[in-house]
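Figure caption, in words: inputs first, then the predicted bound structure.
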Amino acid sequence: MSFVEQFKHLNWHDISMSIYAKTAQDVEVALSKPKRNLEDFKALISPAAEPYLEQMAQLSYSATRNRFGNTMSLYIPLYLSNLCANACTYCGFSMENRIKRRTLNKQEVEDEVKAIKQMKFDSVLLVTGEHETKVGMNYFREMVPLIKQQFNYLAMEVQPLNQQDYAELKTLGLDAVMVYQETYNPSTYARHHLRGNKMDFDYRLDTPDRLARAGIDKIGIGALIGLDEWRTDCFYVAAHLEYLERTYWQTRYSISFPRLRPCEGESSNNLLQPKSVMTDKQLVQLICAYRLLNPEVELSLSTRESPMFRDNVLPLGITSMSAASKTQPGGYASDEVELEQFEISDERSAASVESMIRAKGFDPVWRDWHSAYSG
Ligand code: SF4
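Bound structure (iron/sulfur cluster present):
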């Protein structure tokens, strides 16, 4: 059974009610177990777990250090294009925003690669808007091998593709794909995805299945926190992870938890306000809950979060961080400021993030954690 089929048996309202019905006793039972299930996860993200945050943080810290040691993987996003054929209410690249569009050519990509290499990164996340015709397989066929020559680990965050295309990109050097469902509530999803292929909720939901079948090494999943009630959306992410690990055990997985941030563009006077606001403390609770559910999963934190938050939360469960990110294509080789996909909160240089990581007693790893330690 694919996740799309399994998903039909999950009910948003019932899940939400059962999370909010969890008690202190449920939390204590979950904390006392050596191995936890999805019911325990519900307890750990529930309001009833908020008084147990310190204990959760200690357990999460130990579980993370046991599995990942004192290491922190660093990666950098490389924005190749801001063309997009979708209209998402929360994004500066939406086709409805009249902005200057740009897709990097070979020379411009090489310039970006050079600038990134100077910062020491050996792991890169290629990002584009979602434009099938202008930034599709032909473009990826040209750029992926060119970029892979220069980096140990290559991940992508682009439009969902078919299984055959993923298999081909793997032969060209692609290691990982991030594909976030944004929200697992179909009616909320429909309200925020107004035009283009991204309107197809099921095709997107089925993407991790296609990736795993294509043999991609690592798959990143997540929800955009704030589009709908965060606890319920994050439960779905955990259920999706559980399904994927059970079905495709050879694949590695990572989870991201981006919080909705203001975007620029025409809608800037009317910025999308999160439907469900998640506080810093609640994000820490969520990170610890993911770790207590799953000691193996990689947890990734982006520069959307503030330097202070990133520094404080680093030891508790996070295994990889982006740094020095620029979200406009061509942003590393040139200082020209164009429209960004979303506002960066941590604007520190790679060197200063590296110093912070060392000061906390961690070893920065400039490539994917697994590839660094498996040779
Ligand atoms: S979130 Fe992605 S698909 Fe949606 S408008 Fe932005 S770049 Fe396009």
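Residues 230-247 form the longest helix (18 residues).
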